[in-house]
Design goal:
The chain is mainly α. Helix content is 68%, strand content 0%.
Length: 155
């Protein structure tokens, strides 16, 4: 059960964070890549609401099931381009910044594949998703089961 309706309790803060999301969606960054970053950050943080949300978004964008299934092990997966892998590595380094301190090798690699504007967008996407994950986990926001199996378990 959700602890508090944060959007209702603090609408100005909610609007401010959603404005970052709107700006990222207007950016030239590929929407599949944007949502892959969102999904990977959410997997790392264990945010079930955001994992559900961005898995569905990627599915709606035409993402393949192989890539969705392979995202948790993207380093070994044949389904991701070198450029995508550098974006995912950069997002992961920012998500675990206390340990990684955003290393030069991850930054240099992402810069080889993306424009400055795209690197900033990937950086903001990771930061934004880390914020949303902390809000959703902290308030116990859960995904809504859309299908229920015969024994009452969400499918």
């Amino acid at each position: 059960m959700q602890r508090i309706d944060y959007a209702k309790a603090a609408p100005d803060l909610y609007k401010a964070l959603t404005s970052v999301d709107a700006a990222l969606n207007r950016s030239p960054l590929d929407k599949k890549l944007l949502n892959l970053v969102y999904l990977r950050v959410s997997q790392i943080n264990g945010c079930s609401f955001c994992v559900d949300l961005h898995s569905r978004a990627l599915h709606n964008l035409g993402e393949t099931q192989e890539r969705l299934d392979g995202l948790a092990a993207w380093r070994e997966s044949p389904y991701f381009t070198e450029a995508e892998k550098t974006a995912l590595a950069w997002a992961e380094s920012l998500t675990d910044i206390g340990r990684t301190h955003a290393p030069e090798d991850a930054y240099d690699a992402v810069c080889r594949h993306y424009s400055d504007a795209d690197v900033v967008s990937i950086t903001f996407a990771a930061a934004e998703m880390n914020a949303w994950n902390r809000i959703a986990i902290g308030t116990r926001q859960a995904p809504v089961a859309r299908h229920v199996a015969a024994k009452g378990v969400a499918a």
